[in-house]
Amino acid sequence: DQQVKQNSPSLSVQEGRISILNCDYTNSMFDYFLWYKKYPAEGPTFLISISSIKDKNEDGRFTVFLNKSAKHLSLHIVPSQPGDSAVYFCAASAIPGGGNKLTFGTGTQLKVEL
Amino acid sequence: KAGVTQTPRYLIKTRGQQVTLSCSPISGHRSVSWYQQTPGQGLQFLFEYFSETQRNKGNFPGRFSGRQFSNSRSEMNVSTLELGDSALYLCASSSYAGMNTEAFFGQGTRLTVV
């Protein structure tokens, strides 16, 4: 049962344009969401997070949007840069009051082309 | 400050053997979680330790176990290795136990079972 889904296994965008990565979830108990970037043979690198009490969070070129009613979140990268090429994972947490157990999506391979 | 350190980076073991992986969290972080990444299953949660106690556990067989020491360092053990245990094992540390926080990952240990 895949509780966090990233339906696009890959995405290709041009340098300077916007990259939009999508994530859907099914567990209504999820209350905290994170995006990670991962290069091959390395651990995921934390990018940005959002609590379920918010619908938007920004950090530099990265913005995460959360639509709780649709159980959908998205990561916007503007402008996209070649160094952004990596696999992006959406993750969710459902342990109120403590605990760190992340449920990950299957990832989206982003390729930013010159 | 130093990041999450995992040792060893690479390991080759034979079926039936056991293996111990080590993780040193970011200084001051008390929560350590372990994840398994495989091409077929993606990133899956194994277990989480906080203050030397296992706080959360994923759906893995009892061959997978772990522990945490008083200095927050953690070890993961897999007994009676199977070919399907070949994976990238990732450790993540988090700073605060009372609410959702970002998890920071190490580089991982690549385990190959032959």
- What integer is the average pLDDT of chain B? 92
Indicate the structural class of chain A.
mainly beta
**N to C succession of SSEs of chain A:** EEEEEEEEEEE
Strand content of chain B: over 45%
Question: How would you describe the shape of chain A?
Answer: globular
Structural class of chain B: mainly beta
Nearest-angstrom radius of gyration of chain A? 14 Å
> Which percent bin holds the helix content of chain B?
under 10%
Order of helices and strands of chain B: EEEEEEEEEEE
Largest sheet of chain A: 6 strands, mixed
In whole angstroms, how far apart are the ends of chain A?
Answer: 38 Å
Helix content of chain A: under 10%
Biggest interchain interface, per-side counts: A-B, 27 and 31 residues
Q: Tell me the number of helical segments of chain B per DSSP (H or I, 4 or more residues long).
A: 0
Overall morphology of chain B: globular
Could you please describe the fold and organization of this structure?
The complex is a heterodimer of chains A (114) and B (114). With 114 residues, chain A is mainly β. Chain A is 0% helix and 54% strand. Chain A has no helices and 11 strands. Chain B contains no helices and 11 strands. In chain B, strands 2, 4, 5, 6, 9, 10 and 11 form a 7-stranded mixed beta sheet that branches. Chain B is globular, with a radius of gyration of 13 Å. Chains A and B meet through strand 4, strand 5, strand 9 and strand 10 of A and strand 4, strand 5, strand 9 and strand 10 of B.
Features:
heterodimer, A: 114 residues, mainly beta, six-stranded mixed beta sheet, five-stranded antiparallel beta sheet, B: 114 residues, seven-stranded mixed beta sheet, four-stranded antiparallel beta sheet, globular
Secondary-structure map:
The complex is a heterodimer of chains A (114) and B (114).
Chain A: E1 4-5, E2 10-14, E3 19-25, E4 32-38, E5 45-51, E6 56-59, E7 62-67, E8 72-77, E9 86-93, E10 102-104, E11 108-113
Parallel strand pairs in A: 2-11
Antiparallel strand pairs in A: 1-3, 3-8, 4-5, 4-9, 6-7, 7-8, 9-10, 9-11
Chain B: E1 5-7, E2 10-13, E3 19-24, E4 31-38, E5 42-50, E6 53-57, E7 64-68, E8 74-78, E9 87-94, E10 104-105, E11 109-113
